[in-house]
Amino acid sequence: MGFRKKNKSPPVLSHEFVIQNHADMVSCLAMIILLGLMFEVTAKFAIMFITVQYNVTQHDPVNLYQYGPKDVATVFFYLLIAVILHALIQEYILDKMNRRLHLSKTKHSKFNESGQLAAFYLFSFIWGCSILTAEDFATNPTFLWEGYPHTHMVFQVKFFYICQIAYWLHALPELYFQKVRKEDIPRQLYYICLYVVHITGAYVLNLHRLGLVLLVPHYLVELLFHASRLFYFSDENKQKGFTLWALLFVIARLLTLTLSVLTFGFGLPRTENQGFSLAEGNFNVLTIRMTCLAAICLTQAWMMWKFINFQLKKWREHSQNQASKKKTVSPKSKPHKREFKRNLLMFLR
To answer: Which segments cross the bilayer (predicted)?
Structure first.
C-alpha cells in the first residue's frame, strides 16, 4: 500500500510492488495532470480532467451545466483522487486502529471495509443534505418530475454525481489493491456494480433529482450500519446500533419504492414532454420508465431478501446461544434434586 516504508522492496512492477506503491503511482499521475495547467499547450487538456465541463449558463445568475462525453475525463481524474484518499484513510486511521484492536483476518477485512464506507457515506450524506436544502428538492415531491427533462444542473449537483461515479468506479481496482479475500469479492462486486449502474443511470437519463433524493436517506442507513459494525468490532457488547439500523432500513426501502412509483408511475406519464430524444435529453417513454422502475424494485427486493436472511441468521445464533446456556446446568444441582425426591417419598410413606 502507498505511503508506507518497507524494509524489503519487491521486484519492480511485480504484483506486490504495485499493491504496496499504488497510491504513490496514482499520485504521480494526478500530479502530471495538474502540471499540465502550467503550460499553454497542455492546459486545454488538463482543464478537461480537473474542472466540470459543459457550462451552458447564458444570462442566469447561477451557473448551469449539462453532461457530455468529456465527463469521462473528469470522472477519471477524481477516481485517482479517490484512490489517494482511500490509501490515506487506510494508512493513517484504519491501520492504527487495527493494531490496537488486534482483530482476526476476517474481522480485519470487514473493519477496513466498514471504515472506508463509513467515511464516504458520512461525507456524501452531509453533502447531499446541503444540496437538498439549497435546491428544495425534498420539500415538494412534484419537483422530481415537473419540467422533465432536467437537462440543466447547478455546479454542486453535477460535481456530486461526478464524485459519486468516480468513487464507486475506484472501488473496483481497490479489490485488487486491498487484497480482498476471494469469498468477499462477489458480495462487494454486487453492490459496487449496483451503485455504478443506478447512479450513472440517474445522471445520464436526467433523473438526477430523483437520484439525489433517494441516495441521501440510503446513505444515512448505510452509514449507521457501518458505524455500528465498527463499534461492534471494538466491543462486541455494543449492538444497539443494529436495532436502529434495522428499523431505518425498512423505512428507507419503503420510501424508495414510494417515490419511485410516484415518479415513474404517476408523475412522468403526466408531464407535457413525452417521447424519446437524445438531442433534447428526453427519455420519457413507457419502456424506459418501466425499465427504471423494475430495476429499482428488483434492487429493493434483493436488499430486503439479504436483510431478512441476515436477521434470521442473527436470530438463530441468539436462540442457539440461549439453548446452550440452558443446557449447561451445574453438576451440583442434580444431586440436590434427587435428595429432595427421596425425602419427599419418605415423608409420604
So the answer is: 29-52, 72-94, 115-134, 154-177, 189-206, 212-232, 244-266, 286-305
